[in-house]
Design goal:
The protein is 41% helix and 23% strand. It is α/β, with parallel strands linked by helices and 113 residues long. Strand 1, helix 1 and strand 2 form a beta-alpha-beta unit. It comes from Capsicum annuum.
Length: 113
């Protein structure tokens, strides 16, 4: 069985957590890797950049805790800076080599743009 990489977009909304839960229950197979991807907005301030990166990592860790409730779940966390239109997400999915992208759809989702 081939190992698949599944990217789950990490956002601070309930629907993103629901999307992760759905992934764990419906897509995940033994040996698959879940990449928790958080993209934070571009800023020029180094202080704000560090704060956004830290908050993104903390949020991704809370998603990792959900994954830890499933036996043999392998996760990785990717927190990076990018645009608000989803282009960075596509680039990261290609870079990670993922076979699947899961994103929770909500009112302010990049998918509506």
């Amino acid at each position: 069985m081939d190992v698949r990489k599944i990217v789950v977009v990490v956002e601070d909304v309930d629907i993103a957590r629901t999307a992760l839960q759905w992934t764990l229950h419906n897509l995940l197979r033994y040996g698959d890797i879940i990449s928790l991807l958080h993209i934070f907005s571009i800023t020029r301030s180094n202080k704000k950049l560090r704060l956004l990166r830290l908050k993104g990592f903390q949020l991704a860790l809370s998603f990792q805790e959900i994954c830890n409730n499933f036996i043999n779940t392998k996760t990785e966390i990717v927190v990076t800076q990018g645009d608000q239109d989803g282009g960075k997400i596509g680039a990261m999915v290609r870079e990670i080599g993922a076979t699947t992208l899961v994103a929770g759809l909500h009112d302010h989702s990049f998918l509506y743009r």
